[in-house]
User: Fold this.
Amino acid sequence: MRTTKLIILFTLLLIEFTLVPGQLLAEIINRIVARVNGDIITLHDLNISIKKLTGSSARDLQLKNEKEFYEIRRAILDNLINEKITEQEIIKLGIRVTAKDVEEAIEKVKKENDFTQEELIYSLKQKGVSLKEYKDTIKKEIERFRLVNYEVKSKIVITEEEIKKYYQTHSKEYTEVPKVRLERIFLKVRSLNDKEEVARVKSLGVEILQRLKQGRDFSEMAKTHSQGPAAPEGGDLGWIKASQLEPTLRKKIDKLSVGEHTDLDLVPSGFQIIKLAEEKKGGLKPFEEIRDAIYSKLFKEKVEKRYATWLNNLRKESFIKVTF
Assistant:
């Protein structure tokens, strides 16, 4: 009888000591780190956000740099508090996002990225995100967009005078340097000391030049004959700042009108013909051309400033208690 009691007591102690560490761990992970009005943020919530935003666990960040870890943790906690406040405002204002709204937003994303449904799911899987999680994220983004639009954007006014004043005081931002878009036909010479090879390649170049003068398309001739890296693109070298051109080449380009090309020129590794495909003279862009861009810039700045003020006021009106 005494032996049986001892076995039972030992078993109970074993169970107690087996369970306690797990219970303590659960309490540690789920302990409250902040209260935001009627809502709470747990350490588990915070650690998940740390992992999502930094790519590292809270423990790894702390071991790497403890001081920096506490700064990052506080910043992420502040962000979670802001999210709780905005979520509460969304509920308070009765902002609702339907499943149809979410599906339409996803269809727009698919269209903009030229994705099929399968490609979207595959892309999300590569990032470790399920379709349900993605839909939840989209839903929250739409809710916040509507909240910001209601509380912030709808109250912003930008006058034409403001746009013109910005244009005048920030003219350097909208001043372009002269640029040219060039196309090139390059014929490689393996050895400039080999007179026969030089003569053969030059003969081909003269023939190409003659065909161009007869009206043959430069891009097509480049695709057929050029040995430069841009040959598959019709010899298109893209836009280049005029100031970055080699001085001798720049002098030749300066003499050309758009659509014209140079003669056959000998260069260190072969022969080339350069065409001036397009040209931008540079200087201050016309106001009409950049008016909408300036409006968008000013609008974004005002939205950010007003949103920060609005959120700060909400924080002041809220009960926020950080408990660690």
The longest helix spans residues 287-317. The longest strand covers residues 270-280. Residues 1-30 form one domain. Residues 2-20 have pLDDT under 50 and may be disordered.
